[in-house]
Write a structure and sequence with these properties.
Elements (H helix, E strand, L loop, with lengths): L10 E2 L6 E2 L2 H9 L12 E4 L3 E2 L5 E2 L2 E12 L19 E10 L6 E6 L4 E3 L5
Antiparallel strand pairs: 1-2, 3-6, 3-9, 4-5, 6-7, 7-8
The structure holds zinc ion (2 copies).
Length: about 130
């Protein structure tokens, strides 16, 4: 038996921390840019699309942004619901907004991840 130690070198995008096998791929990811930040923490927002509660009723998610994650790399599988709404040219990285809200139907406290294009400012006073 022989022990073989294999070293693998990765190149990491400094924006999204994704590891790439080649420096060119990592440089391309870094160069693809970041979406402009549309909201900040504590902004009150509402989702454009309705959600469905576990009671099978639709409601509008509205609440405050409690955290902003990312930037996350563009991923067509994750973002397939919003592909048509993305800006053109499409930046390579997106901010992920965590919305905390109380479901108006079952009164459960929820936290959901949204992208900026799914949200609009909610000017209604709480
Ligand atoms: Zn990246
Ligand atoms: Zn609910």
């Amino acid at each position: 038996m022989r022990r073989i130690d294999k070293r693998i070198t990765y190149y990491q995008c400094s924006l999204c921390k994704t590891p790439y096998p080649s420096p060119r791929a990592a440089a391309r990811c870094e160069a693809s840019g970041i979406e402009k930040r549309a909201f900040k923490i504590n902004d009150r927002v509402r989702a454009k699309e309705k959600r469905t509660c576990s009671f099978n009723k639709n409601y509008i998610c509205r609440g405050a942004i409690t955290a902003i994650k990312g930037p996350a790399p563009f991923d067509a599988d994750v973002m397939k619901w919003i592909l048509n709404a993305l800006p053109n040219p499409c930046p390579g990285h997106f901010w992920e907004y965590i919305i905390a809200y109380t479901c108006p139907i079952c009164k459960m406290e929820e936290e959901k991840l949204y992208y900026a294009v799914e949200l609009e400012r909610d000017n209604r006073r709480k």
